[in-house]
Amino acid sequence: SLIEELAMAGSRVIVTTAHRLLGPEAFEAGVVDYLLKPISEARLLTALARARAGLRSGNDVLVVFRGGAPRSLVTLDSVGAVIADGDYSLVSVGNLLLRDHRRISDWEELLSSHGGARLDRSTVVRPHQVVGWQPYGLGATLQLAGSRNRIELGRAGYRRFRQVLQREGMADDSPVMRTSRRQAGASD
Length: 188
Fold this sequence. Notes:
Number of strands: 12
Strand order of the largest sheet: 7-6-5-9-8
Shape: elongated
Number of helices: 6
Radius of gyration: 20 Å
């Protein structure tokens, strides 16, 4: 409970312990990092750098992890999209797809203040991170800035994506779409 109070007050906490099993609980409470004893100097410096980054970024820094997987420190501004993966999520940050313990509804709430939009029951996207899209069938694939990963949308998700573009006053003509239209015109 002390960790939760400190985290809510804006403090960054690094836990050092010999107890391996407390890690997930500590991260849920809001710690920046969890160090197992004996602690190497390099590992301590990494944890301190994460804590400093968190202080500069305020509440926009999150620890992304699922189960025993490695933890990643990300800012909400670096998240391009989140896709439901059963009861969990896949978080698209640049070229990485990180597994996370949060549900898609949690991510919808987290990203709503950072321009995120829920497109369908399994996808939250930050439209300003989308650099292109390609319609296929009744849906589309989205290309995110700085990422090789593509986000697939079904009919409802694509319809909602176009509504969000209109609401945000963004162009409804992606570079990918312009290229494909030019190619279609050349073959006519």
